[in-house]
Amino acid sequence: MRARSEKSLGKSKGEDIFLNLLRRFGQFFCSPETWKVALPLLGLCGLVLYWLLFHWTSNADTAFVNPLTVPPELRGETIAGRKQFRLVVAPGKRAFRLGQSTRTAGVNGDYLGPTIRVDRGDLVDFTVINGLNEVTTMHWHGLHVPARMDGTPHQKILPGKTWTASFEIDQEAGPMWYHPHPHGATGAQAYQGIAGMLWIDDETSRSLDLPDEYGVDDFPLVIQDREFDREGQFRYRRGQQAPAFGDEILVNGTLGAMLELESRLIRFRLLNGSNARVYHIGFEDDRMFHQIATDGGFLNRAVATTRIILAPGERAEIVVDFSSGGEVMLKSFAEAGMLETVESFFEGAGNGDFNLMLIRPQATEQVSHSLPEKLNTINRIDPSLATRTRLMRLGGPISDQGPARNGGQGTELGGAAGARGGGGRRGAGRGIPINGKVMDMHRIDERVRLGDIEIWEIENRSGQMHPFHIHLVQFQILDRDGRPPVGAERGWKDTVRVASGETVRIIAHFERYSDPLVPYMYHCHIMEHEDGGMMGQFLVLEEPAELASLRGAPSVVLYITGLACSHCYAQVELFDQALAERKIELLVITPQAEDASRLKLQGRLISDSEHQWAAWLGLGHLEHSHGTFLLDKNVTERWRDTGFEPFMDVEALVDRLTALSTSSQQ
Ligand code: C2O
Ligand code: CU
Ligand code: CU
Fold it and tell me: Do 445 and 301 fall within a single domain?
């Protein structure tokens, strides 16, 4: 420092003054006196900033005078024992503000869709008509349905086309919902207004003395934030991975919503239908209310609380006592943790301080329902019954996504041609990974055995909260960072908040609907994260019947495409001979069994025309693949080679096999 300033003496006067200033500046900042004053000042600034961040976004200027829209109910028409539902997805227009017409989209209407009402045991046909000029899909969020009926990115509905989802309502009463799920465009379509609630009733829900008169003492409340431009059009802003936030609140598509209701016990079925915002919901007067249901159904007992936190995709049913009258504002409070607030601020908006809906209780003669003591019987799933723990690492680096070889985990269905990101944004905008991978529609990430109970350990390594959603199942939370759940966290869930740095373990029973070809999704329900690739695919697979007979000794499985391929022919001949001599069990599997039966094998030949084995072995749709697999005596895969050319080194394979049987004897 000194040498440098002496040298500079010879330089111009301007430089001299500058260096002098710099020195003084340095002295000033190095003096402890300065810091005695500066530290508290900085602290104060920090506090003010913190407060500002909390209250940055607010809709305090909005007048709450517009009567709440209550979506119509849709109960379907029963034809030949099946309930028929017709859902037309189409663009529309709505005047959220007087004199301004906003371009929207909705289901059987201009914005949002009807509340679909079904009963457990119903056989339903949901016919979806795509009146948009782009591809869409329709997903039944929270429902147990076959993969082909799930409305994921794989069940595309082209513009002008129709798709029918047929299944049985086979789960307990609860507040489900539906929304589009086209890969890369879910956020944009939902933002236009395509979504709705789907409520299931069952014996329990009918027997409970809860408020259940739709639009009278039982209301859906779909909460969404939106940003409007000067012309009153939605402004759907999303950057690379940046979630879309808005600074106005719509409840059931009503801006500045006001609800006059009878001053008695009222039930609200809340859905966070926003793309990204998390709400900390409560009443302006901090009154106590009761939560009676979570995503997947009733809690065992009502949980008294003053707040409900809902991330995108999450639902809650609450019962509130308005018998003392007096108007009150339903609010979302700026109560997120400091880290969460700061993070969400840098992504576009703070968690915010929002008015949601003004409630005006009116005098009534009607007698109030009561709140039942006991609502449900949820049996806790015993973790010792879990066959495995599957890791889901959110965030962290994106690892190479080349075809999985010898891994047994990730499986490349589309081979080398599999498009990265599966139609989502590519290149620069690669999303937040799960287990190091971003979504690829041609890749199966996980294979779950039908009937298994599994623990999924969701570890959030990213700097922000992610609501993790799994299709097909309702699950239970086992613990958060080792702490067992309390209160409403003990209810059925299909979407769970996982805070930055947190690890949440959930347990689920994959008890039905196997499909060797069509996968289910798991993903972050912040829609821009999902669209950016924060999603993976799992197959639910029935264990092939022949597998059981291989137990007890190590075995070799060859998957061949058929004998038309000279490679296959050569490999099968070689292995059949060599393994028979050594008395090693060989299983040859092919979709073309008839033609292969001409071979007269000593090993067993199995037909796989249903692709069950291909899926089980993780070969999936790979049409020209060859697979060589080594199974141990517990039929667990210990080694594999898959690819265009079959594995021919029979000696090396026998060595491995010998090593395996000696090691398993010890
Ligand atoms: Cu609500 Cu896969 O979605
Ligand atoms: Cu996310
Ligand atoms: Cu071949």
Answer: no
Q: 522 CA to middle of ligand 1, Å? A: 8
112-137 residue pLDDT tens: 999 999 999 999 999 999 999 999 99
Same domain assignment for residues 338 and 416: no
The verdict on 581 and 640 lying in the same domain is yes
553 and 493 fall within a common domain: no
Of 541, 570, 585, which marks where a domain is finished? 541
Token pair for residue 635?
Answer: 């039929």
Kindly state whether residues 490 and 575 are assigned to the same domain.
no
Q: Could you read off the pLDDT of 3-28 as tens digits, one per residue?
A: 444 444 445 666 788 888 888 877 77
User: How many angstroms separate the CA atoms of 642 and 645, rounded?
Assistant: 8
The single-letter DSSP state of residue 348 is T
Q: Which residue has the higher pLDDT, 255 or 241?
A: 255
Q: Provide CB contacts within 8 A for 665, sequence distance 6+.
A: none
Structure tokens at 422: 């599966």
CATH number of the domain at 273, please. Answer: 2.60.40.420
Domain shared by 490 and 578, yes or no: no
Residues in the chain: 666
**Interval 365-405: pLDDT, tens:** 888 888 999 999 999 999 999 999 999 999 999 885 544 43
> Does the C-beta of 183 come closer than 6 Å to ligand 1?
no
Burial 497-526 (b: 16+ CB within 10 A, else e): bbbbebbbbbbbbbeebbbbbbbbbbbbbb
Residue nearest to atom 3 of ligand 1 (CA): 141
Token pair 């809690």: residue: 299
* CB 313 near ligand 1, within 6 Å: yes
Domain assignment present for 420: yes
Cα of 396 vs centre of ligand 2, distance in Å, is 12
218-226 and 265-272: which strand pairing?
parallel
Q: Which ligand is closest in space to the CA of residue 155?
A: 1
* 575-578 long-range contacts, CB within 8 A, separation 24+: 575/603, 575/650, 575/653, 576/601, 576/602, 576/603, 577/602, 578/650, 578/654
Which CATH number do you get for residue 588? 3.40.30.10
Residues 106-110 have a mean pLDDT of 98
CA–CA distance, 215 with 298 (Å, rounded to integer): 20
Give the number of the ligand closest to the Cα of residue 143.
Answer: 1
Shortest-distance ligand to the CA of residue 644: 3
Number of domains in the chain: 3
Residue 636 CA, ligand 3 centroid: distance in Å:
25
One domain for residues 294 and 409: no
Query: Per the domain annotation, does 124 fall within a domain?
Result: yes
What's this model's pTM, rounded to 2 decimal places? Answer: 0.85
Strand segments, DSSP code E, in 335-485 are 354-362, 388-394, 411-412, 443-444, 446-449, 453-460, 466-470, 476-480
Query: What residue type is 563 in one-letter code?
Result: L
Domain with 581 in it: 545-665
Question: What is the 8-class DSSP label of residue 68?
Answer: P
The answer on 267 and 161 residing in a single domain is: yes
Of 331, 362, 393, the one marking the end of a domain is 362
pLDDT tier, 561 (very low <50, low <70, confident <90, very high otherwise): confident
